[in-house]
Amino acid sequence: MTDNYIVSASSLLTNRAFSVPDGASLTVSGITKESFPEVKSKLLHILGNGPCEVAGRQTLLTQAESAGEVCDLFIPATDFLQKQRFGFYDLIYIIHRLRDEDGCEWDKAQTHESIRSNAVEEAYELVEAINNHDLDNMREETGDVLLQGAFHAVMAEGAGEYDISDVISELCKKLIFRHPHVFGEVKANNAEEALAAWEKAKMAEKKQKNVTERMTHVAETLPQSMRAYKVQKYAAGVGFDFATAEQSAEKVTEELKEFLSASEEEKEMEGGDLLFAAINTLRKRKVEPEMALLRSVDKFVRRFSEVEKRATEKGIELKTAGLDVLEEIYQQVKREE
Q1: 31 bridge partner residues
Q2: What is the pLDDT of residues 135-178, one digit of tens each?
Q3: Which of 28, 123, 274, 284 is surrounded by the most beta carbons within 10 Å?
Q4: pTM for this one?
Q5: Is 126 exposed, middle or buried (0-12, 13-18, 19+ CB in 10 A)?
Q6: For 32-53, what is each residue's pLDDT tens digit?
Q7: Where are the domains of the chain?
Q8: pLDDT band for position 1 (50/70/90)?
């Protein structure tokens, strides 16, 4: 027998994360004539179009109309594979099904370690979509990032480590604790004060007693430009920082000289110091080094592609053309952008 999930129209409209239990039919009660269009719109977004019943009249949800001043709307249970719209726990069910004994051989074989690189790859693909202002791809890549966390949670559940409820509970507790200016008594009148409240709460949560502990908790697996940026920001928070970007740039000049004169044994360390100083100068100008470098690399690839194309059209062999010839073409491409 199919369960019937009953919810009032007012609860449906005010609930930001409404979902229907798997395999259940739905009755929305107490829908006023005025609220019917809004109720219908929300149901279409959550469930998609399908059969429904209003005051004994069977129709499609897109064609449903209010019946009187107040009415109820009934939507029968939908077969899982026939759903038009899915919810978060549908995703968890799918991953469990893929890892069932008669599921997908590849999904069953995966471990935390075997798919860990996927999280990095998917995160970067989402960043690329954001940089390209590609909303369709952003939606897809956001799903792929979400899949990584959900997949790890399902694997962990199978191993008796933790499950998705543990993940969500811990995340919610963290968000509440780190926003005392929203859920507590702390006051924050602007973004800077809000960030300061977040950082203070985070230090308390992590039981970090000093700046060094904050620095050592920055993940070593981050791209090192991002790690350097965060470490420098923590140092700046206690006043260990140049006053201006210009002063920081002088340090870049100093480190460049040391790098160029470094021995074979010292050149890697001095090269790191040069990069660290350059990142610090970018930070003083509020430029994220990873994004800045990404854009510069993309720009160079785009320009070099045009250089290669024009050289080929002129019968110029890249390997033998020489720097002067290629630089002339490159500068021409640059001027025409």
Answers
A1: 71
A2: 999 999 999 999 999 999 999 999 999 999 999 999 999 999 99
A3: 28
A4: 0.73
A5: buried
A6: 999 999 999 999 999 999 999 9
A7: 4-82, 88-162, 208-287, 290-336
A8: low
Does residue 7 sit in helix, strand or coil?
strand
How many residues belong to the chain?
337
Contacts of 311-319 with C-beta under 8 Å, sequence gap 24+, read none
pLDDT digits (tens, 9 = 90+) for 186-204: 999 999 899 888 888 888 8
What residues contact residue 321 under an 8 Å CB cut-off, 6+ apart?
311
Which pair of structure tokens corresponds to residue 300? Answer: 């160079």
Q: Are 255 and 274 in contact (CB under 8 A)?
A: yes
CATH fold label, 208-287: Helix Hairpins (1.10.287)
Identity of the residue numbered 80 = F
Report the distance separating Cα 225 and Cα 288, nearest Å: 9
> How much of the chain is in helix, strand and coil states, percent to nearest 5?
60, 10, 30
- Rounded CA separation 266/64 (Å): 75
**CATH number of the domain located at residue range(s) 88-162 in this protein:** 1.10.287.1080
Distance in angstroms (rounded) separating the CA atoms of residues 138 and 136: 5
Neighbouring C-alpha atoms within 13 Å toward the C-beta of 251:
19
| % pLDDT > 90, the chain | 82
**CB within 8 Å of 264: residues ≥ 6 apart:** none
- Specify the residue for token string 């290629």: 326
Quick one: DSSP state of residue 217?
T
Phi, psi of 66 (to 5 degrees): -65, 145
Instruction: Answer yes or no: same fold for 88-162 and 208-287.
Output: yes
The amino acid that residue 303 corresponds to is R
Q: Which residues contact 257 (CB under 8 A, 6 or more apart)?
A: none
- Rounded Cα distance between 79 and 91, Å, is 15
Distance CA(121)–CA(223), nearest Å, equals 13
Please state the separation of Cα 28 from the chain's center in Å: 34
